[in-house]
Amino acid sequence: MDAEKASPEVVPGGDSDDVHDLDSLTALGYTPELRRNRSLFTLLFQTLAIAAIPYGEGGPLISAIYGGGQLSIFLGWLVVCLLDECVALSLSELASRYPTSAGPYYWSFQIAKSNKTVLSFITGWIWLIGNWTITLSVNFGFASLISATVAMYHPDFAANDWQLVLIFFAICLITLVICTFGNTFLPMVDTICAAWTALSILIILIALSVKADVGRHSAAYTLGHYDTSFSGWGGFTFFIGLLPAAYTFSAIGMISSMAEEVHDPAIKVPKAMSLCVPVGGTAGLFFILPICATLPPLADIITAPSAQAIPYIFNLVMGSPGGGLGLVFLVLGVTMFCSISITVAASRCTWAFARDDAIPGAKLFAIVSKRLGVPVYALILTTVVQMLLGLINLGSSSAFTAFVSVGVIALAVSYAIPIAISLLWNHRREVSQARWNCGRIIGPIVNVVALGWISFEVVLFSMPTALPVTAITMNYASVVLVGFMAMAAAWYFIYAKRVYKGPPASDGLSADTPPHTEISSQK
Prior knowledge:
Layout: H1 19-27, H2 40-51, H3 53-58, H4 61-66, H5 70-97, H6 104-111, H7 116-153, H8 161-181, H9 186-211, H10 219-224, H11 237-240, H12 243-248, H13 265-294, H14 298-301, H15 309-318, H16 321-355, H17 362-365, H18 376-390, H19 397-425, H20 439-460, H21 477-499
């Protein structure tokens, strides 16, 4: 779509410190519509809220149990943090060069030499699918966690499929209301989330270490116990154990969709993105180490209600449902914050793609409420899509489980496309001019590592957790993703091909762009 020309008088907020941001966004082809009410720290806190360490690692922890136990949990965390930091650094360069909410599909369009429109359309739809399904996985995982918490007091309780769906619907609607009407307070919510998460990890560390009702393991056992008997994958079992850590940081690139809500995004977005893994990874060690040191027998954990290991572990280690509930309550709080933050980011992705006429009903979903300062219809669409997909759980829990893997795979592929184009096609000419970049030596290295890890990650999340494979244990992620892309392709040839011309062409922002001197309270 053609970009509208903006003047300083129409910038949301109207302050003189917005002039540079207006000029920068106009240079990228867009008119500012969102309020820039976020700082570097609140952006970092939102990134960490999306990672949601206790939930991100704890929610799918059952996979690490199948993956061998303590060795996979501890060593797998370190390995994934190193690999995902390479992904974060690679994305940070692109986000600095093109700091817009459009994200990966915009980057692909600008740096590709040919077939720009088709490449950006494909990248955009994979990016959108990833945003929707990873958000769905958080909200449905939240519902499963609530169900497993009830089972701590009522061991015979097992939520029916429709009960889980109703809990899931309630979470989606509550999140929608908060994200729609609370935009002014969301930066503060992200700050509270950071404090809540840090305090929760500290309390869990102390409580598990002191109580340890099922005993404490030796240091060697805590860090090195490895049991391959549960997955059926033999020597490959360790890699199955990487799934929780990979899931935790899978959405790290979603923060790029917040670029139009922070001052000087060419610096602050890449900083927040690149700091997430070191900060979150360090905090995560204090969460997983006490779990590894006090872990009950693996064979018992595999039978945990709702396949949620954390409530079961906390219940046993604390020696009572009350003690376990106290710790699970902390994780539930982290998950609620994550649900809010990730819904905000997913809605901005939806809005940005609609702004470029790439989805059905684009004109409606591209509207930003002047009163609320948020894309209300994009928020509603993001929520409705999740709720519709959640209904699949009524028919097949295996099919629904595939959406969790689809979220990770789709996001990873949407990251890989612009990184690969930049490295192999563009030879890093564009990102080397970004105000924030990794340099001529480190840059290519992290790009290669990122692409290698993403390639393996896609395979990993397409595989079943355990063998033998049955109709129930089969991972349908690749089938679901292909189905989504088939629908996107049909939309492209039926209608979008005539109206979607890609995002506005732009030379991006370079190191020659003058830095923004802020005079507002947002530093």
